[in-house]
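Hi Q.,

Before the meeting this afternoon, I wanted you to have the adenosine-5'-triphosphate prediction in hand. No need to reply - just skim if you have a minute. The sequence and ligand are here:
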Amino acid sequence: MLEVSNIKKSYGRKTVLEHISFHAESGECVAIVGRNGCGKTTLMQILAGVIRPNEGELRYFGKDPLSKKKYFHKLCGYVPQELPLMEELSVKDNLRLWGVGTRKEDQELIREFQLEELMRVTVAKLSGGMKRRLSIACALAEWPAILFMDEPSTALDLYYKESIGNWIKTYCGMNGIVVMATHDEKEILSCDRCLLMKEGKLCELSKEEMNIDFIKEMLA
Ligand SMILES: Nc1ncnc2c1ncn2[C@@H]1O[C@H](COP(=O)(O)OP(=O)(O)OP(=O)(O)O)[C@@H](O)[C@H]1O
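Predicted structure with the ligand bound:
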């Protein structure tokens, strides 16, 4: 279980996040939706241990990753908006850097994200969608229990959007937790729950409220 309590984050005098609290159970996929610049990436970075909040607590399966950073590495995978890839290295070498090697499950991951044919290609030569598939595979190297994804379907074509969507369902079916920041209508509706971010705060939508017209109205 993932528990987030009272997170606050300011950049200088500007408070971006305040009183952010939510939880997610194993097997749940949670969407975080909000206007550009409302703080979604800031929250994802805090949840993944990239930056620290000014206030608040995190508990991942009862463990406190803010006090022991290794729990971030042990328990979470992160697919950031800006892809964390070494452009001058090959796909294979990037995967190796993240720990995807020759184990059976590594080969499955490479197959799942259709990277077999690209293993020798330099990352700089890949399309945006190929890079995104690679960065998702890198985030999954250690089969984390929780996956944070910042706009995961950006740059993916319709085929891969569907394929990543199906993969997320399978991952949650195996008790994984996914928290994703997204602007994609289909992706939002495919999540189990939706949290709306506005003016630095989060509120959860009911099942009835989880429709695009209502969300647009709320964000206007
Ligand atoms: N390192 C930083 N220093 C100062 N301000 C920052 C920093 N990072 C983000 N911000 C500001 O914090 C606010 C939230 O930014 P953030 O990237 O979290 O928004 P977002 O909801 O992810 O936006 P988008 O949907 O466009 O990706 C913005 O006003 C941004 O300018």
